[in-house]
């Protein structure tokens, strides 16, 4: 089992962002977005490099195909944030409160998601490499068709996860409590779980194999 490589984000001195709204394909470098209401704004295809987003509202914010690099995202809150086919590389996401975040087809590499709660996270067909979910709550996350390599769940609640059609390599689920998988138990080759988790999953495993336990 190979452990995930964590990001080492060292932000330079940042300038406060003073513009009115995000722009499609915008270029944001060395900026601090603090307590900004980005609700419904369109930053599709934008690039964020060496940025800090702190306490921002991102309800329905369009960030499809955006690139977020060497950045720290703290206290983001919102529903329906659109990040389909985005790239997150060397990023820390801290204490997020999000629902229905769309990350299908996205690429996450050297990303830590620490603290907070994310409901209905859509990572279908995404690629995750060196990603750590730490001390957070994930409710019904969708990893269907995704590729996960060196992904760790540490002190993390994983409720109602869907791994249908996913491909897992060096995925450490031992720190997930509870570990609830509703679909894709047959795709867990390449993952490691604890003995206790195996016992917890036994009824679902038996049902998936058509075994009746009397």
From TrEMBL:
Residues 1-31 are annotated as: Disordered. SUPFAM superfamilies: Pentapeptide repeat-like. It holds the Pfam family Pentapeptide_4. InterPro entries: 5peptide_repeat, Pentapeptide-BTB/POZ_domain. It comes from the Bacteria. PANTHER family: BTB_POZ DOMAIN-CONTAINING PROTEIN KCTD9 (PTHR14136:SF17). This is Pentapeptide repeat protein. It comes from Streptomyces corchorusii.
């Amino acid at each position: 089992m190979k452990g995930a490589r964590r990001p080492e984000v060292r932000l330079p001195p940042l300038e406060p962002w003073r513009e009115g709204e995000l722009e499609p394909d915008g270029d944001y470098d060395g900026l601090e977005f603090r307590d900004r209401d980005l609700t419904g704004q369109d930053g599709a295809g934008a690039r964020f490099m060496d940025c800090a987003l702190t306490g921002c509202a991102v309800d329905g914010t369009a960030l499809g195909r955006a690139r977020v690099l060497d950045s720290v995202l703290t206290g983001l809150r919102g529903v329906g944030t659109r990040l389909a086919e985005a790239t997150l590389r060397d990023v820390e996401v801290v204490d997020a409160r999000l629902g229905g975040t769309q990350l299908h087809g996205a690429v996450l590499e050297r990303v830590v998601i620490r603290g907070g709660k994310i409901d209905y996270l859509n990572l279908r067909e995404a690629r995750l490499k060196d990603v750590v979910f730490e001390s957070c709550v994930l409710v019904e996350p969708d990893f269907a068709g995704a590729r996960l390599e060196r992904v760790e769940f540490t002190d993390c609640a994983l409720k109602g996860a869907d791994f249908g059609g996913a491909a897992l390599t060096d995925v450490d689920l031992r720190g997930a409590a509870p570990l609830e998988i509703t679909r894709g138990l047959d795709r867990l080759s390449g993952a490691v779980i604890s003995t206790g988790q195996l016992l917890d999953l036994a009824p679902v495993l038996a049902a998936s194999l058509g075994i009746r336990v009397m």
